[in-house]
TrEMBL record, chain A:
Residues 141-239 form the OmpR/PhoB-type domain. Residues 19-133 form the Response regulatory domain. Residues 141-239 bind DNA. SMART domains: REC, Trans_reg_C. The modification 4-aspartylphosphate is found at D68. Keywords: DNA-binding, Phosphoprotein. This is Response regulator transcription factor. It comes from Nguyenibacter vanlangensis. It comes from the Bacteria.
TrEMBL record, chain B:
Residues 178-231 form the HAMP domain. This is histidine kinase. It is found in: Membrane. It comes from Nguyenibacter vanlangensis. One of its GO terms (molecular function) is kinase activity. Its EC number is 2.7.13.3.
Length: 241, 465
């Protein structure tokens, strides 16, 4: 893997590698996923069947699980339901070739925390895993402080180094999402799904245009750019050290 | 066709039922007629017996005995079949009954009794015994042989009439069944040919407008539709193959070149990135096709609820405004703030609006306008997306809804050609009607106007009592 896909630079260096349980019956995809995730500093345990996934999932102490929907011996959804029934609350990303809205809903209802359809980009998978492991803190705080940015959720105002930035409501919503997940790759699909609550893939570069407008307001010329584009994947609100 | 086959036809079974009904009706008629006659005959016999007894009671004992003895030559014989005179101890004095019949009581009431003469077979009599002068008993009886004869006659006439009728009906049944079976056999053969793959074959249907012809007509219309759909599927299959082939060929060529050449690491990364873009295009086509298939198959409407079209329109305008702005196009929402309720799936309707607005922006040049309006329309709602772009020619308005259709004018604009198919599939699921017309807001360009009429929001069913 190339140099851009290092583990998250903001993570403390001594922290043990996050443990991932991958339950997937297709050997080739599993190998690709495992290699990619390992190159990003994850430690991956791979299981091929639903029942072996269950026994390993119940025993091991994993940080996140990736579970394919269609598995031999035990179906993916049953596996998740069983895990949830045994009080395993590890975040689960459901992986599936089935993309219908109904399939998505049933996947989430069974206890999955996120849903990714095949084919997927490795960047998308990695970004979603990171997001799952650091679930946004939905605390009732009224102020967000990220680097030079400050956001007042009650007054709906944003300042950068104390200078007020005028934002439209949609720009405010987008920035709030970014500020709650600093230093984290956010894919276009994640933004569409979570910020706008849309479940379709637009043909135009919708997200890029919105980010572009926000960026022009946040990153004045000469200032350190905070919103960064990750090529081929999405965006990140990068906070300088 | 075999006899067994013939006898199993619905027509023949119907004939059998008719025959059974005929036999039943005749039997009923016979028994009703017979019972009427019997009642009448009994009444008549009893009346005769009483009348004769009254006449004879008045006779002197000698005259009465004489009359009884001479009865054989008397006209009494015709009316009264048997007459006898007994003493008080039931001993025969005169007449043709030599033994007092069992069960006979001299009380002046007519009885029906069976007498058992020693030399002859037993027979039934309507019999009356009355005391007469001199302590004697006069017994008068009338046989039922006339009634028996009548019954025999009626039975014979019934059989004589019913047998030919039944035979005639059965013959008609066989002929009709044969005809029906022959038509069905022809249809079976046609169906066999269709199942063997000859999709142009149709069931024979002549000019007779009976139920068989109408059924054949319906089946033929169904086959027309199926054939049309199969053609469409084949065309779509070809189109998919074609549309996927192009980007895949590009990927292959790029990878081929990258493998053989001596390119730098940066150049190789560029090749890989472009290959991924091409593959993504393939996936977007496949995803769109799957979505259309899913929506067209999904008669399920799990996600349906009453939603505010106005709110969705405002959301979409908000989402696309920056894009329009970047292309220097004015994007307006031309409607009030009042909610416009429709019954539908929010995600799917957003997809419809996004596709239409996306298209409108795509086909409108800088300085143009795109507008979206939502109004209440009767009990339903009407939504319009208008642009000042190149427009759609009237002859192309139907075709743009088809999968992969791309107007010559739009060939240079990127897209899968599936957006409007998706839109029309979703609208069909919502029972909404889509029309395409001109906007004519500017002289030089027609502009396209997509008008969608949504049906009224269904009133919720009353809760079960």
């Amino acid at each position: 893997m190339n140099a851009t896909s290092k583990p998250d630079p903001s993570a403390p260096a001594q922290e043990p590698a996050p443990r991932v349980l991958l339950v997937e019956d297709d050997g080739k995809i599993a190998q690709e996923v495992a290699e990619e995730l390992e190159s990003r500093g994850f430690s991956v345990r791979h299981e091929r069947t639903g029942s072996s996934g269950l026994s390993v999932g119940l025993g091991g102490n994993f940080d996140v699980m990736i579970i394919d929907r269609m598995l031999p011996e035990m179906d993916g959804l049953t596996l998740i339901e069983t895990l949830r029934g045994r009080q395993v609350s590890t975040p689960v990303l459901v992986l599936s070739a089935m993309s219908a809205v109904d399939d998505r809903v049933s996947g989430l209802k069974a206890g999955g925390d996120d849903y990714l359809t095949k084919p997927f980009a490795m960047e998308e998978l990695a970004a979603r895993l990171e997001a799952l492991m650091r679930r946004p803190n939905n605390t009732r705080e009224t102020m967000l402080h990220v680097g030079p940015l400050a956001m007042d959720l009650i007054e709906r105002t944003v300042t950068r180094d104390g200078v007020v930035i005028e934002l439209l409501p949609r720009e405010f919503r987008l920035l709030e999402y970014l500020m709650r997940r600093p230093n984290q790759v956010l894919t276009r699909n994640m933004l569409l799904e979570d910020v706008w609550n849309y479940r379709f893939i637009p043909q135009t570069n919708l997200v890029d245009v919105h980010i572009g407008k926000l960026r022009r307001k946040i990153d004045e010329p000469g200032a350190t750019p905070l919103i960064q584009s990750i090529r081929g994947t999405g965006f990140m609100l990068r906070i300088p050290e | 066709m075999s006899l067994g086959e013939l006898l199993r036809t619905a027509t023949f079974r119907l004939t059998l039922a008719v025959v059974a009904a005929m036999i039943g009706a005749a039997a009923l008629q016979f028994s009703l007629g017979y019972s009427q006659t019997k009642t009448f005959e009994f009444l008549r016999s009893d009346m005769l017996l009483h009348r004769e007894a009254a006449l004879l009671e008045g006779e002197k004992p000698q005259d009465l005995e004489h009359k009884i003895r001479d009865r054989a030559t008397d006209d009494l014989r015709v009316v009264i079949n048997q007459a006898a005179l007994f003493d008080a101890q039931h001993h025969s004095i005169a007449g043709d009954l030599h033994k007092w019949p069992d069960g006979l009581v001299a009380d002046g009431h007519v009885r029906e009794l069976t007498v058992w003469p020693t030399e002859d077979a037993p027979y039934v009599l309507r019999i009356l015994a009355v005391p007469v002068a001199g302590g004697r008993i006069l017994v008068l009886a009338r046989g039922l042989h006339m009634l028996d004869e009548l019954r025999l006659m009626m039975r014979h006439s019934l059989l004589v009439s019913i047998v030919p009728t039944v035979l005639f009906a059965l013959m008609t049944g066989v002929v009709l069944s044969h005809r029906a079976l022959a038509r069905v056999t022809v249809m079976h053969e046609a169906i066999d040919r269709i199942m063997d793959g000859d999709l142009h074959e149709r069931l024979p249907s002549g000019r007779e407008r009976d139920e068989m012809e109408r059924l054949a007509g319906s089946v033929n219309r169904m086959l027309d539709r199926l054939e049309h759909l199969m053609d469409e599927i084949r065309d779509v299959g070809n189109d998919i193959a074609h549309d996927l082939r192009t980007p895949l060929a590009r990927v292959r060529a790029r990878l081929d070149r990258a493998q053989g050449g001596t390119q730098s690491a940066d150049a190789l990364r560029g090749v890989v990135a472009r290959a991924i873009d091409d593959l993504d295009q393939c996936f977007s086509i496949i995803t769109a096709l799957l979505r259309i298939g899913e929506i067209e198959n999904a008669r399920r409407r799990v996600g349906f609820a009453v939603i505010d079209l106005q709110e969705i329109a405002a959301d979409i305008v908000d989402l696309y405004e920056p894009i329009a702005e970047a292309k220097q196009i004015r994007l307006d929402l031309l409607s009030g703030n009042a909610p416009v309720p429709v019954y539908g799936d929010r995600d799917l309707l957003i997809e419809v609006l996004a596709n239409l607005i996306d298209n409108a922006i795509k086909f409108t040049d800088a300085g143009g306008e795109v507008s979206l309006s939502v109004i209440r329309y009767g009990d339903g709602a009407r939504l319009e997306v208008a642009d000042t772009g190149i427009g759609i020619a009237p002859e192309e308005r139907q075709a743009v809804m088809n999968r992969f259709y791309r107007s010559d004018k739009s060939r240079h604009i990127p897209g899968s050609g599936l957006g409007l198919s998706l839109v029309s599939a979703i609208l069909r699921l919502h029972n909404a009607a889509l029309t395409i017309s001109d906007t004519r807001r500017r002289e030089s360009r027609p502009g396209a106007l997509f008008g969608i009429v949504f049906p009224p929001v269904p009133t919720p069913a009353p809760p079960p009592a």
